[in-house]
Amino acid sequence: MSHSSEGLSAAEIAQAETDAARDAACDPVFANEQAHLDETYRTLERIGRAAAAKLEKIAADASADKDAMASELTANTATDDDILEMQAEFAQVNRIIDAYNLSHDLEAERLRNVEILLKQPYFAKIVVEAAKTGAVRELYLGTVGMSDERYERVVVDWRSPVAEVFYNQANGPTSFVANGRTVDVDLKLRRQFDIRRNKLLNYFDTTVAIEDPLLIASLTRQRSSQMQAITATIQREQNVVVRHEDVPVLLVSGIAGSGKTSVLLQRIAYLFYQNRTSLRPENLYLITPNELFERYISGVLPDLGEENPETLTWQAFAARLLPPGRGVGSAAVPLERLRELDAAMESFAFEPGDFVSLTWRGKRLVGSDQMYAATLKHPREQAGAYQVALVRTWLEKQLVGRLRGLAATDEVQSELYDLPLQEQLRLFDEPLSPLEGDNIDEKTLADFAFLYLQDQCADAFRMLENDDWIDYDRIGRRITGGEGPTGLEWIYLKMLVTNACERNARYVFIDEVQDYTASQLLVLARYFREANFLLLGDPNQAIIEGTATFPQIEALFGRERGETVRCRLNTSYRSTPEITALFATLADRDEAMDISSVQRDETVPQLIECADDEAYVAALRECVRTSRESEGLSALIVPWKQDVKRISALLGDDAPAVLDDSGRLPASGVVMLPLKLAKGLEFDRVILANASERVFPANDLGRHRLYTAASRATRDLAIVSQGPATPLLDAWKAR
């Protein structure tokens, strides 16, 4: 049996089910496993119906109690005893509401997990014998765990401690760690299933992960527009990363196609499971290369029953910290520049011009001279975070006091009646009429005016909250004696002066870490100073000049965090052996010998060297035509962003659709995109638009760029060159 349900058409699935029925007739193991699957599926459906019914009952009971409580509660403030009694009643109501919310959330999560499991109840079975007692247990592993009404385990979560023996060990004596205690067991059976809802299509008994037939079958499927979870096929070296103990910094170096991003997402799901009661999505940050990639991976964690963490690009991260209207700028800032700022802070003191006045309609609410004077009230405090916090608190009081004064003026109060009705309702929850002005007491009117001014002066409050009342540009010029700071330097300087950081972050994940400069990484390390980092990348895909090398990354985080643990992923699960062999010749010498592929053989990569422009355009057209006639998703990868228009003009009506940062990958067809945007993605077929020496010179940057482009292909690779191909391909051609 060799088929897999992933990526099959409806006709192929029907044929697979027919084959499965035939297998069940002659294979008692298959028949027994199908019977167990039928029973499990019925149990899941029953659990789902019960959860849905409970949700309906909770909603009905909550609505009835809400109506009853609303009729009984009264706002009685006549005496102190009445106030205490009223507060006790409201507290009791809040407890009842909290209980309903908790019950609702538990049943909603249970129903959501049932819906996940109904697509595939489980993917594996292990039989383990306890070393001490000899008790034998059959456990079925699934995407999420599920127990029935009697609290008996129906499906074991893949992240549970015992599941590690499936991912990490061969059959025989082994162990796992649960609640800090090592449990010795004998793994008697490691069985994998290919299941579609309640139909068993296939099963395999395997002993070593790398011989995984289901893995091979899943790798043959066509690429899709969304990344898929690898829960059923996590391999041993990947599992080391997924289940790694918490360390300050885990640095993973993996070749193209080794599953780095998949491993990252599986680890996030694992961490959510391990810290179920304390870890929330807002405690995790995922830094991604671009928005297209964000969308590509966005469905993996929801498919695993988890929410996506805070996901953003470097540009989005920087924009959050920079003031409105200020560009992010270049990340190519020498690390020494930031070290100079570090050194300067040891003797830093504020000066009169280091502040920005808070204004409204040309009126000065709090002046920069007042801000400087406030710093002098704390002469013993070194200029920096503590002093800034003290001054900020004082400024807030000053701003509120200034607005209270303005709110008492006729000029401001008269503006309230000119506000549109919707604005009045938004600000005051009631309309104001000039005819009723005499009926509103002065204090109420002043309070309304203050609310109005708070809304009008939102920018001033934002400046206070974000510490943008400090002129970092002037401070930067004064410290360095040069031009104003770049966007990156501005952020770093603000962090030094105010101690700005994200204290709620517990984990930070940086994908494609080789694309970041040392200065970018230092900013991230300092901003998320209390988080553990998982950094993943491939030194061979460093296609941007001036980015940090892996030794530099290790040294930087070692200095900042004290410990950096390294892991390596050297097996490619993406590309055929022939494609893997090609990009292996482009890898760094110390890594090339370790690169291997578990894929099946396909066609040999095609190299087309064109003697003239006419032949070049004809070759591109033919490659695009062939790709359009093939199944799956293909990409025409051009070297640079500016090449997109040029190639589109050359191909005319034959040009593929252009994919940019704001788009989404289609399920099939041919797209054109620049190399930088293609990083992290994979395609059934890749056409490399021009592999000449001019585009890919024989240096490290050219080699890395060619390695990255070639490794996007899973099945077929066509390399077109306008003239002779780059010498970087000589080693491959000589094989």
What does this structure look like?
The chain is 46% helix and 17% strand. By secondary structure, the chain is an alpha/beta fold. A hairpin with a 2-residue loop joins strand 11 (358-360) and strand 12. Helix 6 packs across helix 7 (260-274), helix 11 (335-344) runs parallel beside helix 19 (487-498) and helix 19 (487-498) runs parallel beside helix 20.
Brief description of this entry?
The chain has 735 residues and is an alpha/beta fold. It contains 28 helices and 23 strands.
What are the key terms here?
735 residues, alpha/beta, Rossmann fold, seven-stranded mixed beta sheet, six-stranded parallel beta sheet, disordered N terminus
Strand and helix map with partners:
Layout lengths: L9 H17 L1 H45 L7 H40 L4 E7 L5 E7 L3 E2 L5 E5 L6 H5 L3 E7 L2 E16 L2 E7 L7 H7 L16 H7 L6 E6 L5 H15 L9 E5 L2 H7 L2 H4 L6 E4 H8 L13 H10 L13 E3 L2 E4 L1 H9 L8 H23 L2 H7 L4 H8 L13 H15 L1 H8 L6 H9 L6 H12 L8 E4 L7 H10 L4 E6 L12 H12 L3 E5 L1 E2 L4 H8 L4 H4 L3 E2 L8 E5 L2 H17 L3 E6 L4 H9 L5 E2 L10 E6 H4 L4 E6 L11 H11 L2 E10 L7 H4 L2
Parallel strand pairs: 2-4, 8-14, 8-15, 9-10, 9-13, 13-14, 16-17, 18-23, 19-21, 19-22, 20-21, 22-23
Antiparallel strand pairs: 1-2, 1-6, 3-4, 5-6, 6-7, 11-12
